[in-house]
C-alpha cells in the first residue's frame, strides 16, 4: 500500500465518518503535554503515513528533531513491529506514535532497557486511564484478556537514530472490533472491556507515564535495579513462570521455563537439562499458562 504524505491535523477535522473514532486534537495535546522543563518538546499529529518510526528516525538523523519530539499518526500504512512484521489497523482505531529520546547520560549498554521501560510505562498509563488489566510479554508486547483468552493489543519497536538518539514506536489497538482483527490472537482495549476508549486522555496518560519512567531511569544512569525498572517489569511480565519456546536467529529454538529478566533485560530460560540461558533477541511463544 502506498504511503500517504504526512500532514498536520487538528480537532476540527471533519473528514471522518466513524462517530466512534473522532480524530485526535493536536492543539489540546500540545497544551496538555508540552511544558517548560518537561520531556515532551513537540507533538505533531498527521492524518496518515507509512511509519512514524521511519519518519522520526529520518528527521532525527537529519538533525530536524530534538529530544521529546512526538509523532502521532491517525493511520499507518506500513507500520512495523519486531522482526519486520507489518502492523496495520483502520484509521483512528488505535494509538500509533513514536518518540525521540537522547539518553546521552546513560551508558549505551543500558539502552536495551528502553523498549522494556516503554512497555512498563504504557501498561501503567493504560491501567490508569482505560481501567484495563494489561500484562507484558517479553520483550515488548502488550497483552489484554478478551473472553478469558490472552491477546496482543499492542507492540513496541525501538530503533537507533544517529549516534545519540533512540526512536521508540508504540502501536495500541484501542477500538478495533472483532471483525477488524488482523489475526484471531489480536485484541483491543475495547474488546477487553475498557472503561474509556477516548484516545486523547489515553495518549496523555501513556506519555506522562513514559516521561515519569524515563526520567527515573535516566536519573539512575540507566541502572534497572536502582530505578525500580527491573522489579516492576518482572512483576508485570506474563512470560515469567511459563514454559516458552524461544525462536532464535539461525533457525534455532530453545524450550524451557522463563525464570527471570536479568540486569541486561534478557529473558533467562531454564532448560530441562538444568541450564539457565539468557536470551537477548528472539521470538517468544508461550506454551502454557503461568
Automatic annotation (TrEMBL):
InterPro entries: aa-tRNA-synth_II/BPL/LPL, Biotin_CoA_COase_ligase, BPL_C, BPL_LPL_catalytic. SUPFAM superfamilies: Class II aaRS and biotin synthetases (SSF55681). It comes from the Bacteria. Residues 44-218 form the BPL/LPL catalytic domain. It is an enzyme of class 6 (ligase). Keywords: Biotin, Ligase. Its EC number is 6.3.4.15. One of its GO terms (cellular component) is cytoplasm. Gene3D superfamilies: 2.30.30.100, Bira Bifunctional Protein, Domain 2 (3.30.930.10). GO terms for molecular function: biotin--[biotin carboxyl-carrier protein] ligase activity. The keyword Ligase applies. This is biotin--[biotin carboxyl-carrier protein] ligase. It comes from Streptomyces sviceus (strain ATCC 29083 / DSM 924 / JCM 4929 / NBRC 13980 / NCIMB 11184 / NRRL 5439 / UC 5370). The lineage of its organism: Bacteria, Bacillati, Actinomycetota, Actinomycetes, Kitasatosporales.
Amino acid at each position: 500500500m502506498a504511503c500517504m504524505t504526512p500532514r498536520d491535523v487538528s480537532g476540527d477535522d471533519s473528514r471522518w465518518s466513524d462517530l466512534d473514532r473522532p480524530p485526535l486534537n493536536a492543539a489540546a495535546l500540545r497544551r496538555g503535554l508540552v511544558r517548560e522543563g518537561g520531556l515532551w518538546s513537540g507533538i505533531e499529529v498527521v492524518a496518515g503515513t507509512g511509519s512514524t518510526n521511519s519518519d522520526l528516525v529520518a528527521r532525527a538523523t537529519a538533525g530536524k528533531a530534538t529530544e521529546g519530539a512526538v509523532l502521532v499518526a491517525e493511520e499507518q500504512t506500513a507500520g512495523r513491529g519486531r522482526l519486520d512484521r507489518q502492523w496495520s489497523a483502520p484509521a483512528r482505531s488505535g494509538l500509533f506514535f513514536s518518540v525521540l529520546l537522547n539518553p546521552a547520560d546513560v551508558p549505551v549498554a543500558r539502552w536495551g532497557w528502553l523498549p522494556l521501560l516503554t512497555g512498563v510505562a504504557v501498561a501503567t498509563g493504560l491501567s490508569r486511564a482505560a481501567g484495563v488489566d494489561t500484562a507484558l510479554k517479553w520483550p515488548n508486547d502488550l497483552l489484554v484478556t478478551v473472553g478469558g483468552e490472552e491477546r496482543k493489543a499492542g507492540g513496541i519497536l525501538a530503533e537507533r537514530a544517529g549516534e545519540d538518539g533512540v526512536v521508540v514506536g508504540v502501536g495500541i489497538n484501542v477500538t478495533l472490533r472483532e471483525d477488524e482483527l488482523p489475526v484471531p490472537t489480536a485484541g483491543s482495549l475495547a474488546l477487553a472491556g475498557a472503561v474509556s476508549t477516548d484516545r486523547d486522555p489515553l495518549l496523555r496518560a501513556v506519555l506522562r507515564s513514559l516521561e515519569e519512567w524515563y526520567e527515573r531511569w535516566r536519573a539512575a544512569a540507566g541502572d534497572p535495579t536502582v530505578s525500580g525498572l527491573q522489579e516492576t517489569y518482572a512483576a508485570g511480565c506474563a512470560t515469567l513462570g511459563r514454559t516458552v519456546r524461544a525462536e532464535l536467529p539461525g533457525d534455532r529454538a530453545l524450550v524451557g521455563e522463563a525464570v527471570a529478566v536479568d540486569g541486561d533485560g534478557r529473558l533467562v530460560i531454564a532448560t530441562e537439562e538444568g541450564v539457565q540461558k539468557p536470551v537477548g533477541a528472539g521470538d517468544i511463544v508461550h506454551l502454557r499458562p503461568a
